[in-house]
Amino acid sequence: MRGFVLALFVSSLAGCSLWMPKPDPTQAWIELAPHQETDLQALAVDGRRLDDDRYFQVQPGSRTLDMRYRFQVDGADIGPDSGPLPRDCKLTLEYDRFTAGARYRLVAGGHGFRPWAKLYDQQHLLLARASEQGCGNLAER
């Protein structure tokens, strides 16, 4: 019985990894890494909307990445007896040296009311920082 449960667990993990496509070696792969219990979504590359909001995969060269970042501002940052405040923000990151076959990591977080996102390479070197494009009801934009 234990063997069956273990086999079922391992096969379910393998099944989850099948949902994410394999990186194309002719493009750059950008993994999204939000901080803690937040939500980071890929929106567009060079103004073109993406079909899958879980990652960016881009042609080499200069690219502009648009992303959506949702997080909560802690009530302590707002005022006494305040509850958490949800933030829904759009960020844009420009980087001019994406390389085919390279893997990048886009890390996002919030500091008070302000969102931030940073692009790192495989050696964990900081390459670029995103700029905030606004926060609010992004569904209306």
Automatic annotation (TrEMBL):
Species assigned in the record: Stutzerimonas nitrititolerans
Protein's name in the database: Lipoprotein
Domain of life: Bacteria
